[in-house]
Amino acid sequence: xxxxxxxxxxxxxxxxxxxxxxxxxxxxxxxxxxxxxxxxxxxxxxxxxxxxxxxxxxxxxxxxxxxxxxxxxxxxxxxxxxxxxxxxxxxxxxxxxxxxxxxxxxxxxxxxxxxxxxxxxxxxxxxxxxxxxxxxxxxxxx
Length: 142
Fold this sequence. Notes:
The structure is a single chain. This protein is an alpha+beta fold. It has 5 helices and 6 strands, in the order βαβαβββααβα. The chain has a 6-stranded mixed sheet with strand order 2-5-4-3-1-6. A hairpin with a 5-residue loop joins strand 3 (48-53) and strand 4 (59-72). The protein is globular and about 40 Å long. The model has no long low-confidence stretch (mean pLDDT 97).
């Protein structure tokens, strides 16, 4: 299993929107960055991701699971752009902010700490465990 971080602007698509989709989930559409797209192309069904609110909140607020691997993005006719489908798994107990991530020395190499603009990012297994712990979650129970 691999781990990821999905960034979204909560005013456009927030955690409550994702939860509202239930077991159907939602395409993670609208990504127009090659690196982020390539990250989605590497995802497998069952991979887990942090749901991250960007803009003012700048925090991990939930956990999502990939339910469909890379496929054409339905929001464009341009075949360069793919997306995956994700479903909400659970909210975090305590949001983990960007400042929290940057303040944790063990996360100094995390993509989020060094490239806050990339909308879909890989997360290492160690980073996953650390952030889950900071969020009040037990990663082995997700």
